[in-house]
Amino acid sequence: MILVLIGYMGSGKSSIGKKLAKKLNYDLIDLDDFIEEKEKATVKEIFENKGEIYFRKKEQAYLQELLSADKNIILSLGGGTPCFGDNMEQILKANNTLSIYLKASIPKLAKKLIKKKATRPLIAHIETEEALTEFIGKHLFERIPYYSKATHHVITDDKSKKEITKDVLKLL
């Protein structure tokens, strides 16, 4: 089985993915890390040197490769992955695949991300939590139609990582 974790940055895809992989004894693959390994460059370098279109084409190809793998995987996607090309449709029609949207509210995402903005190029330039909240709101407005197609939705607000992991495991 392939469990695909979908959600906005800061929603817990990586941390919940680690817990799920450990509990289920699955491999954990972060799509961005996979791309960096295959391309021998960071996502930032790929964007800077080859452009977003090149990155999105590679992202789509590597996603397809992973979705056709015949092993147990927790696949953590980048926040934008479901929103480009037909990626979300490919996830939904892939065999033996379950997609889970880790859904966090805008205020919770902003509170969490303001502390980590230096490590997130997309939001590093944003100065205040208020401005970050507005940015996330606009971004989510564009992404929700894709995220909401996921097979299951798990609300993450006010839950521990352990509780969220339990909620996901109940879906299996």
UniProtKB/TrEMBL annotation:
EC number from the UniProt entry: 2.7.1.71
Positions with a binding annotation for substrate: 32, 56, 79, 143
Entry binding sites for Mg(2+): 14
Annotated positions binding ATP: 10-15, 120
InterPro entries assigned: P-loop_NTPase, Shikimate/glucono_kinase, Shikimate_kinase/TSH1
The keyword Transferase is annotated on this UniProt entry: yes
Gene Ontology BP term (one): aromatic amino acid family biosynthetic process
Transcription regulation among keywords: no
Pfam families per UniProt: SKI
GO molecular function: ATP binding; magnesium ion binding; shikimate kinase activity
Co-factor requirement: Mg(2+)
Cofactor, free-text remark: Binds 1 Mg(2+) ion per subunit.
Keywords: Amino-acid biosynthesis, Aromatic amino acid biosynthesis, ATP-binding, Cytoplasm, Kinase, Magnesium, Metal-binding, Nucleotide-binding, Transferase
HAMAP family recorded: Shikimate_kinase
Similarity comment text for this entry: Belongs to the shikimate kinase family.
Physiological role: Catalyzes the specific phosphorylation of the 3-hydroxyl group of shikimic acid using ATP as a cosubstrate.
Protein known as: Shikimate kinase
